[in-house]
Amino acid sequence: MLPxxxxxxxxxxxxxxxxxxxxxxxxxxxxGVVDDESNHMWIxxxxxxxxxxxxxxxxxxxxxxxxxxxxxxxxMEESTCRNFAPKFVRHIQDNPEFWExxxxxxxxxxxxxxxxxxxxxxxxxxxxxxxxxxxxxxxxQS
Length: 142
Ligand SMILES: [Zn+2]
What we know:
binds zinc ion, two-stranded antiparallel sheet, 3 helices
């Protein structure tokens, strides 16, 4: 299977560029990076398969962060992506039937035209976390 060259997030088609070397904002070599503004993704070629999956999910989480309504302090973005991406990969690895079931259900729902994906939580209902207390609270309605 060829690596994907694009993906769709919130009805927007975003490119995935595969490069021999990928540099972070600070100029360091890295496995993947997402532009904060455009959400374009660059992924280092020739990673081990599990590493590559982890990198793709990690970078996708950054995009969800940038396009979503879930709010956390900015310094938590990288640590959240680093924490959850490997767990997600591991879950897929350990539960192939679970993911095949979900994938099949989604394919069927789209092909039959009977179902639409849920939309994101409206910003007025987004959760935020206080940087100091770490407690979850509902964002005030505007
Ligand atoms: Zn990251």
